[in-house]
């Protein structure tokens, strides 16, 4: 090619090299505040893009779901770190993100460690409505175990026994969940009282072991209520200050000349 014929040859790209900007320079951090039933109320931070024009940072945070291990939320629950509590952001106050309950799941390694040979796996699920209007779908899992003084290696349940156990699981779940609100349900989940009740109820049909509520999720939620959220965080209680003594107004004297009162 003859020199000077192509004028565009040798010129760089238009605009030059694009400037690399760290995306985190446009972020701000908020504290994640969990409900009052947990010991570690501030369990982490979450980033969000700063307010620019009509994009408000607090509106972008609402609806964000966090998944936190129960062992990180409660100091005494190191043996229950396989439970993952799901929390959803419902309100932003200052630099704090107020979260409400959203569900619960198990880690995969825990579920895999429960499955063994020579036993029957029984699962059940049911949709139950709490007293505060939440429709919850609850999944329960359990395994049969050997009878006392059993010599036989296997502990398989018959099909009729499996159906009866599954029906008992559904009945206990419906009774325990429907008589309380969302806060009471998660208190029972953390304590494991529902699983213990199921184990006792099915004992007459077939002895069970490793009974857990492996998953809980919200199917339908009522309209957002700030008062209910504050109650979950322990900030909605009535103000219990000092009682104010009644002030004695004293004697009101009538003045005949002026026709008024003092």
Overview of this protein structure:
- The structure is a single chain.
- By secondary structure, the protein is of the alpha+beta class.
- It is 24% helix and 30% strand.
- A hairpin with a 4-residue loop joins β9 and β10.
- α4 (159-178) packs antiparallel against α6.
- The protein starts with 26 loop residues before the first strand and ends with a strand.
- Residues 238-248 have low confidence and may be disordered.
Q: Which oligomerization state do the chains in this entry correspond to?
A: single chain
Shape: elongated
Mean pLDDT: 84
Q: Which regions contain 5 or more consecutive residues with pLDDT less than 50?
A: 238-248
Q: Describe the largest sheet.
A: 8 strands, mixed
The count of helical stretches stands at 7
Helix amount, in percent?
10-25%
DSSP strand (E) fraction?
25-35%
Q: Radius of gyration over alpha carbons?
A: 30 Å
**Number of separate strands:** 10
**SSE topology string:** EEHEHEEHEEHHHEHEE
- Head-to-tail CA distance between termini: 112 Å
**SSE-based structural type:** alpha+beta
Topology:
Layout: E1 27-33, E2 42-49, H1 57-61, E3 65-69, H2 70-73, E4 83-93, E5 96-106, H3 108-114, E6 121-129, E7 135-144, H4 159-178, H5 182-191, H6 193-201, E8 208-220, H7 226-232, E9 254-255, E10 260-261
Parallel strand pairs: 1-5
Antiparallel strand pairs: 1-2, 3-4, 4-5, 5-8, 6-7, 7-8, 9-10
């Amino acid at each position: 090619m003859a020199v000077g014929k192509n004028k565009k040859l040798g010129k760089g790209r238009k605009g030059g090299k694009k400037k690399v900007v760290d995306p985190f320079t446009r972020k701000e951090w908020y504290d994640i505040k969990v409900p009052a039933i947990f010991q570690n109320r501030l369990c982490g931070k979450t980033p969000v893009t700063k307010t620019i024009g009509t994009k408000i940072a607090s509106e972008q945070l609402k609806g964000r779901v966090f998944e936190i291990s129960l062992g990180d939320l409660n100091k005494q629950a190191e043996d229950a770190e396989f439970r993952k509590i799901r929390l959803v952001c419902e309100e932003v106050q200052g630099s704090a993100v107020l979260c409400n309950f959203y569900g619960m799941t198990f880690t995969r390694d825990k579920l895999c460690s429960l499955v063994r040979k020579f036993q029957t796996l029984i699962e059940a699920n049911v949709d139950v409505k709490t007293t505060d209007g939440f429709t919850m779908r609850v999944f329960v899992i359990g395994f049969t175990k050997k009878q006392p003084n059993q010599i036989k290696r296997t502990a398989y349940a018959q099909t009729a026994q499996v159906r009866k156990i599954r029906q008992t699981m559904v009945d206990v779940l419906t009774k325990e969940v429907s008589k309380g609100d969302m806060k009471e349900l998660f208190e029972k989940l953390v304590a494991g009282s529902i699983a213990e009740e199921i184990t006792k109820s099915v004992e007459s049909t077939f002895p069970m072991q490793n009974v857990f509520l492996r998953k809980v999720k919200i199917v339908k939620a009522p309209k957002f209520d700030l008062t209910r959220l504050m109650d979950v965080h322990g900030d909605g209680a009535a103000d219990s200050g000092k009682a104010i003594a009644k002030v004695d107004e004293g004697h009101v004297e009538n003045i005949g000349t002026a026709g008024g009162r003092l």
